[in-house]
Amino acid sequence: MYDEDEFLALSGIQHFAFCRRQWALIHIEQAWADNVLTAQGELMHKRAHDEELRERRGDTLVVRGLSVHSRALGLSGKCDVVEFHKDTHGHPLAGEDGLWRAVPVEYKRGSSKANDADRLQLCAQALCLEEMLGADVPIGFLYYGETRSREKVEFDESRLGWLDGGGDACLVSTSSYATGEAFLGLSVVLVERPLPAARHQSGDGRGVCGQKAFRGGAMRHLLNTLYVFTEDAYLMLDGENVVVRRDGAELGRVPLHTLEGILCFSYRGASPALMGACVERGVGLSFFDRKGRFLAGAYGEQRGNVLLRKTQYAWSEDTEKSLAIARNFIVGKLYNGRWVLERAVRDHGLRIDTGSVKATSMRLDGSLRSAAECETMDSLRGIEGDAAAEYFGVFDELVLRDRETFRFTGRARRPPTDAMNAMLSLFYTVLAFDCASALEGVGLDPFVGFMHADRPGRRSLALDLMEELRPVFVDRFVLSAVNNRVVSSKDFEKRESGEVRLGDEGRRALFGAWQERKKETITHPFLKEKIPRGLVPHVQALLLARCLRGDLDGYPPFLWK
To answer: What distances in angstroms separate CA 299 from CA 42, 226, 258, 283, one per listed residue?
Structure first.
């Protein structure tokens, strides 16, 4: 995903495909001189972009100058004209009855060209519309002023492939070390470019963290996570490799040093030798049931800074200090939840009820201000609970595809009674595992929190830390998986008890997408540094440790926009 300040102009697609020198002169050098032909073209587009001209022609709604963008492709611009045709196989349109199909129309001054430059620009517009509407846009039209005729363009895989090629291959690559049934859900992600040396661990393990720079601290490489979904699979250690076996047959192996975590959904478990090696090397090893519920993990002796942990325990017993940190956790959660809604309004305003979503966003803003000023932990929990009810009250508006399967009526946890809750519960658990691993990595005790009550076996601090990350990491991921058709109705099964469970194929697809999402580079809002998304829990854990040590005046939550 691209940030908005990285977007390129849609019109540049046509310029680049037609002549790369022309594209450079226009978009980089800004040295392109107008002439009679460009002036005529500009006049034609000005008329087409007249946003005041909205027409209804029977079952066709004509919208002019529609702003569109794609975060996946990093493009933005305006469509000359978008026609919405009533179609029983179409999609809903905000404020309109029935189902509609979007058809972009691009205006050009001259005549049809032999090359695909114009068609590729139109295809890019269609991809932007697909992302914003959550619906297919199979065709569009090019209108040529010289011939006063329309050319129909069908969007096929050849044009999609032209636009979808590339990516930051120098930064991240994906590979698989093994094949076999056990590794169908394995996604091995290798970060090939190390972080700058200035951000590595300093000699005393402390470092300095500031608003403008991040020097020192437990920054780490984004390594791989191994997911094992095969029933009756047994994990063991062979030299320096993790080996997965079933019924005496080897299904695959992965070098242990390439892993930062192993999540096993098999009841057979793992050998003591592998558990010991994981503990010794700091590789998280956790076991889950087939529902995705956490069962157990392998832990060794605490080797972190004992003074840091003693400070953590003291703060957890101090009502005022616990409240100060808990407030920031919840402020981060409410801020991020609000921006999930605000981004949905910007990206999918044509599909969703923007009035109700924006009203909820404003109420979340009020809750955020109340949370920042509350004076007791009970009032903070009350504000958070009310805000969560408001947020999930409009969550269904953000589901754009297959509303029948993925309709969301509210949180249902134990057990999840619909497909959306099944996915949310599963990946909340996975996020908690990531947060616990991050906390252990900086020397904090994940079982002693500031907001969640201490209970035997409960990783209270991990649950605290994940609160601010839920909307950004899990909620948006699940929505993207649904809207981009990563999962469908066939990936879920409903039990007699009413429980809805994610099937094996759906689980493999989702965990593969989850690993891909962790590779995405984002700019950390506090550090102002670009980091892989998967490192955010580690960075936030480090900032929390710096706060407890007194290096920071307070804990800075992850505020995403």
So the answer is: 67, 18, 19, 10
Which residue ranges make up each domain of the chain?
4-164, 172-297, 306-549
**Cβ-based neighbours of 248, under 8 Å, separated by 6 or more:** none
Could you report the per-residue pLDDT of 404-445, keeping only the tens digit for each? 888 888 887 778 888 888 889 888 988 998 898 888 877 888
Tokens 């949310």 label which residue?
A: 424
What does DSSP say about strands 500-502 and 492-494: parallel, antiparallel, or unpaired? antiparallel
| pLDDT on residue 31 | 59
Sign of the dihedral through C-alpha 280, 285, 530, 190: positive
The mean predicted confidence, pLDDT, of the chain is 77
CA distance between the termini of the chain: 13
pLDDT at position 467 over 80:
yes
- 3-state SS of 55-89? EEECCEEEEEEEEEEECCCCEEEEEEEEEEEEEEE
> If you classify domain 172-297 with CATH, what class do you get?
alpha beta
Q: What are the structure tokens assigned to 519, written together? A: 């590779």
Determine the topology of domain 4-164 in CATH: Lambda Exonuclease; Chain A (3.90.320)
CA 100, CA 137: separation in Å to the nearest integer? 11
Please give the single-letter amino acid code of residue 232: D
Residue 373 CA to residue 381 CA, distance in Å, equals 13
pTM of the model: 0.70
Looking at domain 306-549, its CATH class is: mainly alpha
Helices 306-317 and 536-549, packing angle to 10 deg: 80
The mean pLDDT of 77-86, rounded to a whole number, is: 88
